[in-house]
Amino acid sequence: MDAYYRPTRAEISLDALRCNIEAFRSAMPAGTLLMASVKANAYGHGAVEIAAEAAASGADYLGVAFLDEAVQLRRAGIATPVLVLGYVPPSGFALARELGISVALFREDALEAAAQSAGAGVPPLKAHIKIDTGMGRLGVLPEQGAAAFIERALCTPGLEIEGLFTHFAKADECDKTYTRLQYDRFTDVVDYVKKHDLPIPVIHAANSAAGIDTPEWAGGMLRLGIGMYGLYPSEEVNKRRFELQPVMSLKTEIVMTKTAPPGWGISYGAKYVTKGNERIGTLPIGYADGFSRMLTGKAEALVRGVRVPVLGTICMDQCMIALDPAADARGFGASGPVEAGEEVVLLGCQGDEVISAEDIGAKLGTINYEVTCMLAARVPRVYVRDGRAVSVTNPLT
Ligand SMILES: Cc1ncc(COP(=O)(O)O)c(C=O)c1O
């Protein structure tokens, strides 16, 4: 376990992760493979630890955004198949071959580069062909040569085509008209593959939202991201189908308390000024940890199960909370004043109160995905199983 000395940490529940994976697995049609999306440091949760736990929970594939992320997993000893969902330049093909990493294929020059580097004794480059059915990001357009591209890829020496996939743009919306259109476009391509008996083992389309609302459109593999982390892709998906458990909590401790006199400025710019004698707590977390300065005037914290405001400007490494009489009236008073050393929750539950990634996202004008991804590398991740810390990662120590 890595050491950490500042009492700020993200607690990552491996039990919740497992439950969420099992919930999706049991809700998908029998035989559907599961890819755990661990890109962006596993949406902030820690790529290597989440990948290892997902693999141990039966994930068949891991998904990442860049080759570098896949290399990190292999170097950590993770042998599960990995697909790079984003662009890999031909300069990375040799390493991908050597490490058995699969790449997404959607560019003509990638076929040429793969052919050039093929040779006796060189392992094949594993690849999944990406079709753009309406995301407008990566992928070959169905009407502009998808079938021919697939045929060429299958004939390219040195390539092993493992899969064919697409990505839905609006699967998290209530109205499924657009997703149906994307699914139909993809089905046309898949029908071509089937009609011509083209050997492509895994055909996949669904993200978490499609896994929740339209599992019948997933194909042979669900690419599970946000749902695995216990968060819903949107408020519009059918949340009643799954009771997901959030995997990440963000916790810290009060490192100083004081009663500031009336008219006392709190934090940079003295934007908050005490009205009377106000009890203030200082927290060792700030915007450099991913607790965004844009939450200034909006953020809340949980202390003794009571919701309190963050006061004044959020600094780079610290911020202040109100331990005021109003909060006292709601519960502090009974057990004496809040003191340094007491736990504070900034994301997650304490007592009956919850601050969710959606709450924070709404305050920032963003989505829950970005809230967990924002958590900085310098925040230690403490992995918890059965209520016990089983490992800690802290790149600083
Ligand atoms: C191609 C692809 N598939 C699957 C996913 C997982 O999506 P989600 O986190 O919504 O489940 C992503 C993530 O954005 C993705 O880019």
TrEMBL record:
It comes from the Bacteria. Residues 247-384 form the Alanine racemase C-terminal domain. Keywords: Isomerase, Pyridoxal phosphate. Its cofactor is pyridoxal 5'-phosphate. CDD domains: PLPDE_III_AR. Belongs to the alanine racemase family. This is Alanine racemase. It comes from Paenibacillus darwinianus.
